[in-house]
Design goal:
This protein is an alpha+beta fold. 23% of the residues lie in helices and 32% in strands. It folds into two domains: 2-80 and 225-261, no CATH class; 86-221, no CATH class. The two termini are 20 Å apart.
């Protein structure tokens, strides 16, 4: 009965983390470039009452054994990097990556972070930056006199000036991709940093030989959270939590019956 209490308690803790993950997904269902997370669980160690394969007689062995599991725990909540839907903005500074890759963002610390959110603006110097003012890497500067801005599928940024027909090149957007993007570290603001699990970034031009996706101007990538699926997962997690709480209650009632025997 002690095993039942602790096993059920571990199940309740695991489902609580699952609900926390679902809540964060739902809270960011409208966050541009957000990527949902999915909780994964694994069973804990087993107490061997009878070891499988142990000798049962001189020439026979136990076919299955007797093992009692000691509960579960949350193993990970990996990031799901499926493509989100595209929303039209008609803003020439907004862009999406159609395929693999991340925009490179230079943080105030000087380190690079990576994002799928392509909602960019110009700062007072005409530098292409995020909503938090962090510049895109490589840095792209557009003069205030620019009449129109064009971002090609290969990341080439050009603009035109009044009275001129020829376009001027402002810079080249480069993307980065990772062997295991699910192993990246989330730091908030839809930014990710690489880890040993994700591997080093592979940098190149959009649509290049590296397998990076191409850019589309005037769109933003919406969150990839499936609200209906999240609500289904929420119901399942809630029922699992309820079932584990019933096990705790049942074990408590069994203890109560044992205590009454001594009276």
């Amino acid at each position: 009965m002690i095993r039942a209490l602790y096993s059920a308690a571990s199940g309740m803790s695991a489902q609580q983390l699952n609900v926390d993950t679902i809540a964060n997904n739902l809270a960011n269902a409208s966050t541009t470039g957000f990527k949902a997370r999915r909780a994964q669980f694994e069973d804990l160690i087993y107490q061997n009452m009878v070891q499988p394969g142990a000798s049962a007689a001189q020439q026979t062995v136990v076919p299955a054994g007797l093992q009692v599991g000691l509960g579960t725990r949350a193993a990970s909540n990996e990031i799901i990097f499926t493509q989100g839907t595209f929303a039209t903005t008609n803003n020439p500074l907004d862009m999406v990556i159609e395929g693999k890759g991340f925009f490179q963002i230079r943080q105030p610390s000087g380190e690079l972070a990576y994002t799928r959110a392509g909602s960019f603006q110009l700062d007072r110097n005409g530098t292409l930056v995020t909503a938090n003012g962090d510049p895109v890497e490589p840095q792209i500067t557009i003069p205030s006199a620019a009449q129109s801005i064009t971002v090609a599928q290969d990341g080439t940024v050009t603009y035109t000036l009044q009275g001129q027909t020829a376009s001027q090149k402002a810079g080249q957007i480069q993307l980065a991709m990772f062997q295991n993007p699910a192993g990246m570290n989330s730091i908030g603001n839809t930014l990710f940093t690489p880890t040993d699990a994700s591997g080093d970034p592979i940098v190149g031009n959009p649509g290049g030989a590296e397998g990076l996706g191409s850019l589309m101007q005037g769109y933003t990538e919406q969150s990839n959270v499936d609200v209906v699926n999240e609500f289904v997962n929420l119901i399942q997690s809630q029922r699992a939590y309820e079932a584990n709480s019933k096990v705790v209650k049942a074990a408590d009632e069994m203890y109560q019956q044992v205590n009454q025997l001594a009276q």
